[in-house]
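@channel sequence for tomorrow's demo:
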Amino acid sequence: MEELLDLGVLKASLSELIAHSNMDDCVLPDEFKAKFRSFGEYKIERYNLYTLQVSSRKSLLVIPNQWVYIAACCCQYYIELIKYKNKLETLGFTPDMYEACHPSKDNGDISEDQKTKEICKEKAEHFLENYDGADKEFLVNFLWNYEYWGGGKNIKRSNDFTDSPVLNIANTINASSSLIGAIVKGIANQDCLNLLLKSEEWESFEGSSVSSNAPKKTSESKFVLQQIFYGAPGTGKSHAINELTTGKDVIRTTFHPDSDYSTFVGAYKPTTKSVPVMTVIGTEAVPVKSKDGKEMTEDKIVYEFVSQAFMQAYVEAWKKYCTVQEGEEPVDEYLVIEEINRGNCAQIFGDLFQLLDRGDEGFSEYPIKADSDMKKQLKKEFAGLEIKDKVSINDLFKGKDIVAQVLEGEVLLLPNNLYIWATMNTSDQSLFPIDSAFKRRWDWYYVPISNAEKNWTIEVNGAKYDWWNFLQAINDRVYDATYSEDKKLGYFFCKADDGIISSSKFVSKVIFYLWNDVFKDSEFEGSAFRDENGEKLSFDKFYSVDNGKVKVNEEKVELFLKNLELEPVSENDEDNSEDGFETEGDRTLPRSPKVFAVTFPDGTVINEANKFETYHKVLSKIGIEKVENIAEEMKYHRHHTPLVTKSKHEAILNDSTYNYIQEGNYYVVKGINQITMYRMVMLLNDRLNLQLKVQYE
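structure tokens (generated this afternoon):
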């Protein structure tokens, strides 16, 4: 069962994020608007530049875009609340037990009398007394301490118990702001969250807050010392760390169920060592020599302290302090722990746990005493070394000569140039859940699922299916089955060979994971998991036996992909035909329309035989300076450069497909396809409220 996060800690961090976010007028990315068209009973009638108009049976409302971003911040909390409730119900909790635990004085909804209420409460308490999971403390707070997690309405209310804590985090008081709760559910259930998190607009919204979509920093140049990169499998957590630590000194280790203190820190171990062969002459031991006068040696097993990843990184970090002059910053040292939740962290870290409390200057606030074996090893490692900046370090510990104790190996103290970063797959079935005390000593960096834009395809029966389209389709079903993002697949869950994921790799990695880890508990509900006869598409059907050899049944793989409403990509789709630009969205738009005409409110009609001329003249009439600001939002481009810009970009200049048309102080990209032209005009029409009539057919 998946691991729970501490609601109180999560609530505090998200509240802080919202409180320090930029609440200036903000826009929403087009990819998000294309997918997010309704929430709850509300239908989005129109997206304006800074607002959206929604309607229901009851009313017509105008909502600021800021509410959507606030809702996006709250999504993780909503998902976690649902996860809590699902876990309790999986363990046997009943609505009456929720009722009895609710701290309200008014429990009149209970089915019988006060005596029944007391019985239910006793059942709840008895249940928790007999539950020994590592998240017991979290569940107790969830049931009885509503104030801790911002709860209001009883947990048993399946439809709206999440609204109060969400609004508590959002800190909104307007009566209609309860809509934020509905927006949160809409974003979470439609899997629109990542379309916001990966956008440039999100960075603008976050403003001075600590970014949830970028590794946290303590200053312009310094990253947070202890971070856990977490997310669904295949999102690129290790890759993100690799990118951030390129050119840095890095020591890596991986946790697993058998990891312990000795494999992480170090211990005395038997090792082979070459030693002189000795003999006794009289009362004196002397080395034995060969005929040529050389001393003879032999291999013997001796016990020596063998340093592991933590000790290696620790020693290297302090040695870097010994190589700089007073006042200079030492080079950073990185200890990277892969799969941190697959090991028993309490056992692995042991008393090192105390060192994870860092002060404002980045040093451990509470040094610990080294044992005798470790002291000998550290003293040997630091022999003859000196730290020039020892005074400033000692001042942090009330003038105590802590530096001398570190170099003598008497105490352990993490320096401020030692970074400990880790990765964690939220979908892993951890044998040893991480306790809340350990979690609080880390910053958490969420790595969302996003399109890496590598144009990978799944090759089945001679046809190719777009990998990203598959991920979007299957992740929708994963969420419907689990109400969580933890089991979703990231872009790098299955790596392609030269851009191709073969049917055999697809079945052995992707299908195997989906059938054995994700959907087994949901009993494979839905048409996606049915064969051509309407029967359950079991895992064994993806294989067949031909002449005694087992091979992938590509027909069943293709059937599954088509059940997800996926279509093979055409050759034109793969290379994007005439321009190479992305053409996301409605594939029914004609690539080469017979008519592309634009009518302005003043009666001007632009309908040139050359479609680019139509597009260019429309931009000119609108005002190229207005277009340039909005073109910055446009993401339908291969080289990640705006379609209208004040300066030329090398990527465009180096691609023979494109060139620039200069207009005043601006440059317009020529060579884009007509769908992209159409979408640019429609974007301008929406942003500037131009009331254009666009004919594209």
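heads up for whoever presents: The first strand starts at residue 38 and ends at 39.
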